[in-house]
Amino acid sequence: MLQFIYGLGALSGFALQNILFKKVMEKSSPVRAITYRSSIISFLLILSSLFFVSSFAIPQNLYPVLLFEVIIGAAALLMFFTALKRGKAAVIGALAQMFVLVVIIIGVFVFGETLSLLRWMGAGILVLGGFMVAFEKFSLKELKLEKGTIMVMGTILGWGIYYSYIKDVVTGVGPFYASVLLETGIFIAILLYAFIRKEKLGMPRKGMGNCVIGGGIAITIATLGYTFSVEAVGIVLTAMMVAAVPVVNAIFARIFLKEELSKVKYASIVLLMVGLMLIAAG
C-alpha cells in the first residue's frame, strides 16, 4: 500500500498547483506566477539532486534535444498559466490533460507505434469529454467556448510535443536528473522572456506568499512523486493514478476557489479521467 503514496502525492500535487497559482494570478501576471513556481521547484530539485544524482555529466548529443524541450516546455507553461488566469481552474486543468492525444498522434505517425483497441477507445472518450468541457453552451444556434480554451489548445500541442520527446532526455541522464535539467532550463527561459518583455518581477503581493510557497512545494512533490512512483509501481499504474488529476482538480477548485460547474461539466471531467485511464491501461 505504501508504494502508492508516491502516485497519490503526484496526483494531489499536480491538481493543487493549479488551484494555488490561480489564486496567485488574481494579483499577478502569468509570467510572474511562473517565475515564482519555477524558482521554488528548481531550487528544491537542485537541492534534492545532491542526494539522488550520482553524476551531473550531460552527454553532448543531448544538448540540442534539451534546448528544444526547454523552449517548448516554457512556451506551453506560459500558455497554460495565461489560460488559467482567464478561465476556470477546473475547466483549464481538465482540458490541459488532453495533451495525451498529441502524444498518441506523434507516437503513431512519427514513431510508428501501434495502439491497442483499448487505447483507441480511451482516445475517443477523451475527445468527447474534452469537447463537452471546452464549450460553455451547446445550443445549436450558438456554440460558445469557455474562457481560456483557445490559449490552452496551445498548451495541449506544446505539452504533447514536450512529453513525446522527453524520453530522449530521461534515457540520457535518468528520470530525476532529467527533471532537474528541464525545470531549471524552463525557469531560465521564463526569466529571459520576462527580461525581453521588460516584465517587472518582484516579491509576491501581500497575502499571496503562502499560495506561492504552497504551489511551488505542491509541484515539487508532484514531480518527485511521479518519478519515484514509476520506480515503485511502474509507468502504467502511475499514469492511471495521475489520470484522476481532472477530477481532483475540479474538487479542489470547488473547495478553495468556490467554482461551480454544471452537472454536464462534472460528468465531462469524469469522462476525461476515464479516457486517460483507458489510454494508460492499454
Strand content: under 5%
Mean pLDDT: 86
SS element count, helices: 12
Shape descriptor reads globular
Largest beta-sheet details: 2 strands, antiparallel
Distance between the termini: 23 Å
Sheet with the most strands: spatial strand order: 1-2
Output the helix-strand order: HHHHHHEEHHHHHH
Give descriptors for this structure.
two-stranded antiparallel ribbon, 76% helix, 282 residues, 12 helices, mainly alpha
Describe the structure concisely.
This protein is mainly alpha-helical and 282 residues long. It contains twelve helices and two strands, in the order H-H-H-H-H-H-E-E-H-H-H-H-H-H.
Q: What would you say this structure looks like, in words?
A:
- With 282 residues, the protein is mainly α.
- It has one domain (2-281).
- It has twelve helices and two strands.
- The protein has helices spanning 5-24, 30-52, 63-86, 89-96, 99-109, 117-134, 149-173, 175-196, 209-233, 235-242, 245-256, 263-281; strands spanning 135-138, 143-145.
- It has a two-stranded antiparallel sheet.
- Helix 3 (63-86) runs antiparallel to helix 4 (89-96).
- The chain is globular, with a radius of gyration of 18 Å.
- The model has no long low-confidence stretch (mean pLDDT 86).
